[in-house]
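Repro:
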Amino acid sequence: MGRAGRVTLTDVAKASGVSRATVSFVLNDDPRQTISAATRERVMEAAQDLGYVPHGIARALREGSSRIVVLNVDWGMEGNFSRSYVRGLDEELAEHDHILLVRHGHSIPEATQKVLDTIAPRAVLRLGEAYMRGHEPIEDDWENGFAANAALQIEFLAGRGHTRISLAMPDHDFPLTEARLGFAQEAARRLELPPLERLVVPRPREAGAAAIESFLAAHPDVTALAAFDDDIAQRSLAALRDLDLRVPEDMAVIGFDETEHGSLSTPALTTVHIDAEILGRIAARDALGIGTGGLAPVRGWVVERGSV
């Protein structure tokens, strides 16, 4: 056994009856070496039996970077979308012998740089970065990308006869706020609907009710609210109830990025479900320089309940 009880390449070499170099070639899957299948199997079995774990620091020095991929998730980006994205990213990286490190929320650049300098990651990703940089959607985005998912709310409401629609927004900006607004407005334009009205639904509950009351007094023709997310949709449902307005008879409400709480409201919340696992897998392969193998994003879908 090596230092502090750690299993080393030398231990695996002794157990499998081959040289330390051969063990290294096998465990690192070196394509330049021709090693028989029987030898490979013997080395892998010995490594598994001994519980061999590669030394990350030594391997990082040898390879020029660690086998860690860092994902930064900005504050306000957490939700079912991000969770499914992280799941796909994590599983795909694990299949290629890499580890995912997820950092949530804002952090000062100096602290971030210290982390990166310490672990020398293979890649650093940021959830939604392309859209934060003002990425203009190509037509594929309207088929199964972020633009398509943002348009689902508007398309669903229009299909139920709603032509005057408001976007119910939080009282502070999130990283993708402007992108969502832009995609929703473009969806309305493509459907030949009037421009969407913007409604801010603040906390606490009383403030939200007051905001919606004032908004509806100024826009009495609005019949549907497309909420920024399920949280804003739930706030809107509570405010409408406090104002003695019926949902969906007086006002339809649709959420976004489905949470489990939507099914528990009265009426149950119609919302958009997005599974981003494939996006996470694509991001992992891109980070590792591996072909995506025909992987393609899957468009979200509307979960139909009682609020529309």
